[in-house]
């Protein structure tokens, strides 16, 4: 990944920053130029709480290039409290613990290293919600 793209996507990766439509109030992630609901311009930034629940999940046994060292790993569709569905890797849990509707929260974790001695790329993953465990 080129350095400029890495810096451009920082807010999305580290803080779940999307947009909210000023016309209809729909919250969008990832950010888009136009609202998916009413087609109005959507340029107002919105930071999501990072809380949600597992909507669906699967285990990846044959990963894409660059992620072989992570296999097997779990990926889920997470329905954020604010509405959007986000695809993300699940972390900090045993595969047998995952269930549909399970409360989760966003955390920042290492995704990969570009090249042998390249830049370390971090991003969001989801783990069981700490408040739900207490």
Q: How would you describe what is shown here?
A:
- This protein has 134 residues and is mainly beta.
- It has 2 domains: 1-48, no CATH class; 50-134, OB fold (Dihydrolipoamide Acetyltransferase, E2P), CATH 2.40.50.840.
- 12% of the residues lie in helices and 40% in strands.
- It has 3 helices and 8 strands.
- The chain starts with a helix and ends with a helix.
- The model has no long low-confidence stretch (mean pLDDT 84).
Features:
134 residues; mainly beta; OB fold (Dihydrolipoamide Acetyltransferase, E2P); five-stranded antiparallel beta sheet; three-stranded antiparallel beta sheet; 3 helices; 8 strands; 40% strand
Give the overall silhouette.
globular
> What's the number of helices?
3
How many β strands by DSSP?
Answer: 8
- Unreliable segments of 5+ consecutive residues: none
In CATH, the architecture of the largest domain is: Beta Barrel
Ends: how far apart?
A: 39 Å
Q: How many domains, in number, for the residues? A: 2
Structural class: mainly beta
Quickly describe the structure.
12% of the residues lie in helices and 40% in strands.
List the SSEs and their pairings.
Blueprint: H1 3-8, H2 10-15, E1 17-20, E2 27-28, E3 44-47, E4 51-60, E5 73-80, E6 85-89, E7 103-113, E8 120-128, H3 130-133
